[in-house]
Amino acid sequence: MAEAEHGLQSLIERCNRGDKQAWEEFYTMYFGLVSSVAKRYSSQANDAEDIIQEVFVSLFRTLKRYDPTRSIEAYILEIARRVRIGQHRKATATKRAGNPVPLGVHGNDSEREFMAMTSTDEDQEHSLIKAQEKSLLRKAMESISENCRDLLALRYNRALSYKEIADILNVKEVTLRSRLQRCLASLSKHYSKLALPGGR
Fold first, then answer.
1. Residues 6+ apart with CB under 8 A from 159
2. Residue 103 phi/psi, 5° resolution?
3. Do 1-103 and 126-200 come out as alike in CATH topology?
4. Domain 126-200 belongs to what architecture?
5. What is the pLDDT of residue 62?
6. Which of 79, 32, 38 is nearest to 177 (CA)?
């Protein structure tokens, strides 16, 4: 296992043991990614802050189920996507009912978490949403630069480590991580535009 990946896995294991310092390191490491996605998903600063908070709360509860064969960035983006869907559903339910309390919530903070975030069962609606999002993701990929497409393909399609990609591109690993974050932010921006009603 590459040194960077071993370090990440060690950090995640410490987080799952309840190590407060590890969680602070994890928060600092991925705050930029979560923040950039949250800003794309929201129109107001308060909404973005809510998304950021919910994403990290959800990670705190679900990180034990993280599959280390997957990219941690992809896992975080999936959590953020589910948070966004949960907020949208709660807002829709509130509008329909004229009630500030989301459906299925009875005032308990733990119940306020969107149930699908921690569920391993995919109902039909979730499957349809995933199919639609795959289509949007393909369109969003066509909108980003070719360099970003190549970089994302190396990381997520070929599942290469940061070190392997850095060696291929002859760049420092810290530079690679920065580039990858910018590419993910660009992809998220285009995806969010497409996801809006009437988005193209």
1. 69, 71
2. -60, 140
3. no
4. Orthogonal Bundle (1.10)
5. 86
6. 32
pTM for the predicted model, two decimal places: 0.46
CA distance 174 to 75: 20
> Percent of the chain scored above 90 by pLDDT?
1
Q: What is the pLDDT of residue 120?
A: 43
CATH of domain 1-103: 1.10.1740.10
Listed by start position, the domains of the chain span 1-103, 126-200
Contact predicate 48/35, CB 8 Å: yes
pLDDT tens across 83-97, in order? 887 776 766 665 555
- 152-196 tens-digit pLDDT: 888 877 778 888 888 888 889 899 888 888 888 888 788 777 776
Euclidean distance between CA atoms 56 and 24, whole angstroms: 11
- Render the chain in DSSP notation, one character per residue: --HHHHHHHHHHHHHHTT-HHHHHHHHHHHHHHHHHHHHHH-SSHHHHHHHHHHHHHHHHHHGGG--TTS-HHHHHHHHHHHHHHHHHHHHHHHHHHT-SSPTT--S-TGGGS-GGGS-----HHHHHHHHHHHHHHHHHHHHS-HHHHHHHIIIIIS---HHHHHHHHT--HHHHHHHHHHHHHHHHHHHHHHHSTT--
